[in-house]
Specification:
about 140 residues, ATP Synthase, domain 1, 2 domains, 10 strands
Length: about 140
């Protein structure tokens, strides 16, 4: 049996995941990075992106997350994010439609603020679609 880390994913609404994992890959503020057993202590910002968990049996799970922070200390990982959605809970067709709508809003933006919001919506839709596809890709191979 592999040595496990304790992972807690927390949002303002509450704890989304709490349990043992073999590894976690997070979208760090400077670059994505992976945390394994006995990782050095670290505190980092997180960008919105896809968070990947490897459960103790090495089954992957994918989450679309918003920006936040991650702390790694004594084989315990705490992820604090503003929003998180499990990849398998995201409907790819709905995420694709969100992506298309965001692209249209970018094209029709009249102000910098409208453009900024549309770009943020586009990024969030891209992240959701990527997490949904990764989750379904794994489901299709098991």
């Amino acid at each position: 049996m592999q040595k496990a880390l304790q992972l807690d994913i927390v949002t303002p609404q509450g704890t989304v995941f709490s349990g043992p994992v073999a590894a976690v890959t997070v979208p760090g503020g400077l670059a994505p990075f992976q945390v394994l057993y006995n990782h050095a202590p670290i505190l980092s910002t997180l960008e919105s992106g896809v968070l990947k968990i490897l459960l103790p049996d090495l089954t992957p799970r994918y989450y679309a997350i918003g920006s936040g922070f991650v702390e790694v200390l004594n084989n315990r990982i705490t992820v604090l994010v503003e929003r998180v959605v499990a990849g398998e809970a995201i409907e790819p067709m709905a995420a694709s439609e969100r992506l298309r709508q965001a692209q249209l809003r970018i094209e029709s933006a009249q102000t910098r603020e409208e453009l900024r919001k549309a770009r943020q919506e586009l990024h969030e839709a891209e992240v959701a679609l990527r997490a949904a596809r990764l989750a379904r890709q794994h489901i299709g191979t098991t």
